[in-house]
Specification:
Helix 2 runs antiparallel to helix 5 and helix 3 packs antiparallel against helix 4. 39% of the residues lie in helices and 23% in strands. It folds into four domains: 120 residues, Efflux pump adaptor protein, beta barrel domain (Elongation Factor Tu (Ef-tu), domain 3); 72 residues, RNA polymerase II/Efflux pump adaptor protein, barrel-sandwich hybrid domain (OB fold (Dihydrolipoamide Acetyltransferase, E2P), Beta Barrel); 42 residues; 73 residues, Helix Hairpins. It is rod-shaped, with a radius of gyration of 47 Å. The longest helix has 34 residues. By secondary structure, the chain is an alpha+beta fold.
Length: 361
């Protein structure tokens, strides 16, 4: 009986082992790909990497760097916002520069007031005082002359009636009064003539210099307000309120580098593709008149025909895709720019990588 039970259990174990081996040996059915890989649409097409960017006749996206340094005090726009030329984007703390500009403005206004004062001379009140001083000097001279005449007349009648010393004092007083009158008359002429032309010219130069200093300071003060250089879309803002920025840009805590404070581009209906063709494949490119390409969006089955725009005639190291500024790069590429209608390819953003095949000879 016991042997029979053992035989039955062994048989069940054998059957279970066979079933398990059969199940384990089954190959799972392969899953369908999420999207088809980019296929070369040309008989001799050249594969290249491309970057979506905004349409700029002279370059790529608009990278805005501040010309001054300081903490950000206020941000007026958000990423993705559409702005017009001259719109205020953000401000940097300008308290020190504003005080400097106000001080220079006050100095310029003081110099202008002094210049106007010089041009307005002689002042009527000063002229009246000078005239009164002339009259007083004339009266003093007249009194000295009268005293001298009396002394001389008395001396002529009786030499002993007036001492020689008193007569000399009277004569000296008359000469002093005459000299004083001459000096006061010259001072009156000087007052009446007004400011010296050289004093006016010197004050004009000082006023001009201070005015220009204030204009330069005011222009620098305007640099603390970052405005949109053109119509477009704000793609990226690299700093928040309180963050310190400089002319080198804003510090990125994720990459440890300095990036543009704001990146702008044209609206999404104006996008292009910058394609980087390997330098060893440049000679295989078709003539520009016949050059065409097709873009494949990664992660989708979408492919968009491209229209040739221009070639940037400068072969440079391929660091644009990785931003590896410190690494040694041997591969060099030629940028070729194509454009397309963004309505045919939704969900595209500047900076996005795409696969591109370019027609060859």
């Amino acid at each position: 009986m016991r042997s029979k039970v053992i035989f039955i259990v062994s048989g069940i174990g054998l059957i279970f082992a066979l079933i398990s081996a059969f199940i384990a040996g089954q190959q799972p059915k392969a899953l369908a790909p999420a999207f088809n890989p980019a296929a070369n649409p040309y008989a001799k097409g050249i594969y290249a990497n491309g970057i979506i960017e905004s349409v700029q006749a002279q370059g790529e996206n608009i990278n805005i760097y501040p010309e001054v340094a300081g903490p950000i005090t206020q941000v007026f726009v958000a990423e993705g916002a559409k702005v017009h030329q001259g719109d205020l984007l953000l401000t940097i703390d300008d308290s020190v520069q504003r005080a400097t500009a106000d001080q220079q403005l006050s100095q310029a206004e003081a110099a202008r007031a002094m210049l106007e004062e010089l041009k307005a001379e002689p002042r009527r009140e000063n002229l009246a005082v000078a005239e009164a001083q002339v009259d007083n000097a004339q009266a003093t001279l007249k009194n000295a002359q009268d005293q001298l005449a009396k002394q001389e007349q008395s001396y002529a009648i009786d030499a002993k009636s007036v001492s020689r010393d008193a007569l000399d004092n009277a004569r000296n007083a008359e000469r002093i009064a005459a000299t004083n009158l001459e000096v006061i008359r010259k001072q009156f002429s000087l007052t009446k003539a007004g400011a010296w032309v050289f004093d006016i010219r010197n004050q004009e130069k000082q006023y001009t210099a201070l005015t220009k200093a204030y204009a330069a300071s005011a222009a620098l003060l305007g640099k603390y307000s970052i405005r949109a250089p053109t119509d477009g879309v704000v793609r990226s803002i690299q700093a928040a309120v309180g963050s310190y920025v400089s002319a080198q840009g804003a510090y990125d805590s994720y990459t440890g580098g300095l990036n543009p404070l704001i990146v702008m581009s044209t609206p999404d209906d104006n996008l292009q593709v910058r394609v980087y063709v390997d330098e060893i494949l440049i000679n295989r490119l078709a003539d520009q008149a016949k050059l065409s390409a097709e873009m494949f969006i990664r992660g989708t089955d979408t492919h968009v025909p491209l229209i040739f725009t221009r070639i940037q005639p400068y072969v440079s190291p391929k660091i644009e895709l990785s931003d590896g500024r410190q690494e040694r790069v041997d591969l060099r590429v030629l940028p070729v720019i194509f454009h397309f209608a963004s309505t045919k390819a939704p969900h595209l953003y500047p900076g996005q990588l795409v696969d591109v095949y370019v027609s060859a000879k």
